[in-house]
Amino acid sequence: MFQLLSRLHFLQNCLGRLVSWCPPVFVHNLGKYWAIKKALYLTGLEGLEGGYFEFGVFTGSSFACAIQCAKRSGVKDAHRLMKFYGFDSFEGFGELDEKDAHPFYVDLNFKTDFEVVKKRLKKVAGKRKKDVNLIQGFFNETCVDATKKEYGLTKASVILIDNDTYSAAMDCFAFCTSLLQHGTIIILDDAFSYRGATDKGVHGAMQAWLAANPLVRVRLLSHYGMGGEVYIVADCP
What pLDDT does 1 receive? Predict the structure, then answer.
């Protein structure tokens, strides 16, 4: 069979052409949606209570996917009471320091209309629109104790860090520390940005956060798309 397939040059060329035509952003986002579905299924299977938290909502596509997957997770009543929290400035990154500078991470590429995104997500949520909460503002302004108190935040089931830069991700990790529980799943989007540097981007922020919180231990669950990583909290205070 191997010898036969190796001689089917036309078929191989067609397959290569099909892959080349598929936009990388489509491949990545499809992988991210599957990662969200997997995270919701696994946490539901374990009976894990807590909210879905997304940092870096942008147009709301991943957030909408999370709402839809929670409705159809395949685990009866697992996410019936789940609430969804999305954090974003909806204005881009704002002023970046030198460590966060990146040719693609600029305001022009990530500025969106808050009201349009809000309307989209409420429509997707349908009868569960009261469970959807969008917190607008830069992360150093919204990832604070006052937000936890305002929304009564105590536990996280799934966390998606999709805000690209080290500084923003550090604000989010610090915010989420008290929300962690054994089994919380953390999804890191674009974990290999900054040419794979271990001290930059969301991956660098996670490493720094783990070093500062030695009682928190995580296990790599999977990779996805063009550089996403998924972790599960194996232990926490």
Answer: 60
Pick the CATH number of 23-235 from 2.40.30.60, 3.40.50.150, 3.90.380.10, 3.30.930.10: 3.40.50.150
pLDDT tens column, 195-204 = 999 999 999 9
The phi, psi pair for 229, rounded to 5°, reads -130, 150
d(CA 138, CA 13): 47
With H, G, I as helix, E, B as strand and everything else as coil, classify residue 19: helix
- Beta strands (DSSP E) in 25-167 are 51-55, 84-88, 132-136, 156-161
Least confident of 22-26, 95-99, 178-182: 95-99
Q: CA–CA distance from 97 to each of 102, 165, 192, 213, 236 (Å)?
A: 10, 10, 19, 24, 31
Interval 152-176: pLDDT, tens: 999 999 999 998 899 999 999 999 9
Per-residue pLDDT of 24-42, as tens digits, reads: 989 999 999 999 999 999 9
Q: Are 189 and 56 in contact (CB under 8 A)?
A: yes
- H or E stretch including 125? helix 114-125
Beta carbons within 8 Å of 117's beta carbon, 6+ residues apart:
57, 58, 59, 60, 90, 134
Q: Please name the helix (run of DSSP H) or strand (run of DSSP E) that holds residue 187, with its range, or none.
A: strand 185-188
Q: Rounded to whole angstroms, how far apart are CA atoms 89 and 113?
A: 10
Rounded Cα distance between 14 and 105, Å, is 34
d(CA 113, CA 105): 18
